[in-house]
Design brief:
By secondary structure, the protein is an all-alpha fold. Helices cover 86% and strands 2% of the residues. The chain has 9 helices and 2 strands, in the order αααββαααααα. α1 packs across α4, α2 crosses α3 and α5 packs across α9. The two termini are 36 Å apart.
Length: 182
């Protein structure tokens, strides 16, 4: 039983890290490549020293933002994905409880919103769950750096992005089912 739980934890850790990696790579490509005019200017040869100076400053700034090959500002934006995954897992639990106990979601929400103590308690539970899930699967001992290096080395991008897209579709479907059951 312990071996089974350990393997499930490793699988969940890999799932979190694949989604985190794909979000980071997409955000990096969008903000540092597609929307960065200095990147586009650096692709062609310019004889203008002002443009060359702007390009060199932009390259220095990009290098300064990197910490061990990872852009610090983009990694913070990418943290939204594991938080959404954690909320999705909570929604799965809520959806299962609604179906098993045959309770209406609106009655539960009215009870929680009507009582300030329950509202604060639910908020605290959600925040603690998000914090510990991200800490366990991503940030403890910088696990995400190890996985980023592994994913860059293996270069199975089709697999990673297909998992990412299927995950997004399943999450949207689950959120839709939860909201439609209200």
């Amino acid at each position: 039983m312990h071996h089974y739980l350990l393997s499930m934890r490793k699988l969940l850790e890999k799932y979190y890290n694949i989604n985190y990696y794909c979000t980071y790579k997409l955000l990096f490509f969008i903000f540092e490549r597609m929307l960065n005019p200095f990147y586009w200017l650096s692709l062609s040869k310019w004889n203008n020293r002002y443009i060359k100076r702007g390009i060199s400053i932009a390259l220095k700034q990009e290098a300064a933002e990197m910490h061990k090959g990872i852009n610090g500002s983009i990694i913070i934006w990418a943290t939204n994905t594991p938080c959404i995954i954690s909320l999705w897992m909570l929604c799965l639990v809520c959806l299962a409880c609604i179906k098993i106990f045959r309770v209406e979601l609106l009655s539960v929400l009215n009870m929680i919103v009507g009582n300030i103590f329950l509202c604060i308690l639910c908020f605290a539970i959600i925040v603690l769950f998000l914090y510990y899930a991200n800490r366990i699967f991503l940030f403890k001992h910088d696990k995400y750096r190890k996985y980023f290096a592994e994913f860059d080395k293996k270069k199975k991008y089709l697999l990673y992005y297909s998992i990412y897209v299927v995950s997004l579709i399943v999450q949207l479907a689950t959120f839709y089912l939860l909201l439609s059951s209200a």
